[in-house]
UniProtKB/TrEMBL annotation:
This is tRNA(Ile)-lysidine synthase. SUPFAM superfamilies: Adenine nucleotide alpha hydrolases-like. Its EC number is 6.3.4.19. PANTHER family: TRNA(ILE)-LYSIDINE SYNTHASE-RELATED (PTHR43033:SF1).
Length: 452
């Protein structure tokens, strides 16, 4: 049972989603055959009348990890056929890793679902994550860090942007699994139970068992944590907008006026700004950002390195740039695309192989690119810019190449390029503007997490 926060029934949750979707739209529902995804597809089919302007599609990813998985995928296809819903199937091919199979499976699932969404023009991918999944996620994160400053206690976001191009929505995130199964029972619709969901080898299964033994789950703290997470990220976005400048995608400056605000806001902004500049997929860890904040609190000019980024505090503000260690040259073949240093996507449209890497900058060049910046800072920033070499020619600035127009160098937002939760949408958008990235596609539904 739950206390406090309202818990919508499956049909009501589906109805709310459809009411908020911008039309016309195609929605791709990920269906494994389990109770949650089966209930989601059935609830959507019952609440989406003909002529609504919304087309429901379904997709199943066969991970090939169990002998019966192919038959289960065919059973889902038959279920979709009975509902009159187009169904698409993909299989995770190739050798499977010996360790980290859960994370690898998740990556493969999202990659294959994205392929189907691209092929069908789906506005969003829908998954059947439930309130039970949310409670388990928060419990696991709290076991690692239960402090209120842990943004992970907000749980999973109801909407996440994948690969900067497709939104993933979780309509059942406030709905209980027991209610979904009761709905399926009333509709006389069965489901498939994955035996891995009972294997205590997995942390989530152990946490699930512990939560099941508790009489009540209070969802109110979770709702409040999500609100705090969103408010903190929005405040950090405003701080970045008001006080941060970024030059040539590599050198950021936080004005002195931005250093005197709320420490929690500054901490959140800097931890993600450092991830962007350092090409890292995650914000600075608790200990790393703690060291940075202690350094800033001292007020003494100097430098500190954290997360591959140098924080250089001077009278005119705080400069941040990628440190110049560990910048490995990258070879990109003709017609290939690759990522250099987690910071740039390189598309080689030329007919020759190119090499992308750093080159020793000249003081005059650095001063030209970064005027009104201390010479040492300018030199450091230029040393981490991408240079392209082909046939012994160099490109001295991002976006230029030996064959003009044939080689594209696009900045990346490492912490947000794969997954951008709606909590951080405004902050991610600020970084995208500062680094010259493409704008994010709008959410296909109203952003309920930001309602007052």
């Amino acid at each position: 049972m739950t206390d406090g926060a309202p818990v919508p029934e499956p049909v009501e949750a589906a109805r709310r989603l459809l009411a908020d979707i911008a039309r016309p739209a195609r929605l791709l529902v990920a269906v494994s055959g389990g109770s949650d995804s089966t209930g989601l597809l059935l609830a959507l089919s019952k609440t989406n009348p003909p002529g609504s302007g919304i087309a429901i599609l379904a997709a199943t990813v066969d991970h090939g990890l169990r002998p019966e998985s192919a038959a289960e995928a065919r059973a889902v296809a038959a279920f979709c056929g009975r509902l009159g819903i187009p169904h698409f199937m993909r299989r995770w091919e190739g050798e499977k890793p010996r360790t980290g199979i859960s994370a690898a499976s998740r990556e493969a699932r999202y990659r294959l679902l994205m392929e189907i969404a691209d092929e069908t023009g789906a506005a969003a991918i829908l998954t059947g994550h439930t309130l039970d999944d949310q409670a388990e996620t928060v419990a696991m994160r709290a076991a690692r860090n239960g402090g209120e400053d842990n943004p992970g206690l907000a749980g999973m976001a109801a909407a996440v942007l994948l690969d900067r191009r497709r939104w993933l929505l979780r309509p059942f995130l406030a709905t209980r699994r027991a209610d979904i199964r009761a709905f399926l029972a009333r509709e006389r619709q069965g489901w498939i139970d994955d035996p891995s969901n009972l294997n205590p080898y997995y942390e989530r299964v152990r946490v699930r068992g512990r939560l099941a033994a508790e009489e009540r789950f209070d969802a109110v703290p979770l709702v409040r944590a999500a609100g705090r997470r969103t408010a903190l990220s929005d405040a950090a976005a405003q701080c970045v907008h008001d006080h941060v400048t970024v030059r040539h995608g590599v050198l950021a400056r936080l004005a002195p006026s931005g250093l005197g605000g709320d420490p929690a806001i500054c901490r959140h902004a800097l931890s993600l700004l450092a991830a962007v500049l350092g090409g890292r997929a995650h914000a600075l860890g608790r200990d790393s950002i703690g060291r940075v904040m202690a350094f800033l609190d001292s007020g003494q000019p100097g430098r500190i390195t954290a997360g591959r980024v140098i924080f250089d505090l001077r009278r005119e503000g705080l400069y941040l740039a990628r440190e110049n260690r560990g910048l490995t040259p990258l070879h990109v073949g003709a017609g290939e695309t690759a990522v250099w240093d987690g910071r740039y996507r390189i598309a080689n449209g030329s007919e020759v192989e190119i090499t992308v890497g750093p080159a020793a900058p000249g003081r005059e060049e650095a001063s030209t690119l970064f005027p009104d910046v201390p010479p040492a800072v300018a030199m450091r920033a230029m040393a981490v810019m991408p240079y392209v070499e082909a046939n012994s020619l160099f490109s001295p600035a991002p976006g230029r190449s030996p064959a003009a127009g044939q080689i594209r160098i696009e900045p990346m937002l490492a912490p947000f390029d794969r997954f951008l939760p709606q909590f951080d949408l405004n902050l991610g958008s600020e970084f995208a503007v500062l680094l010259g990235c493409d704008v994010f596609p709008p959410m296909p539904v109203k952003d309920s997490a930001r309602k007052s």
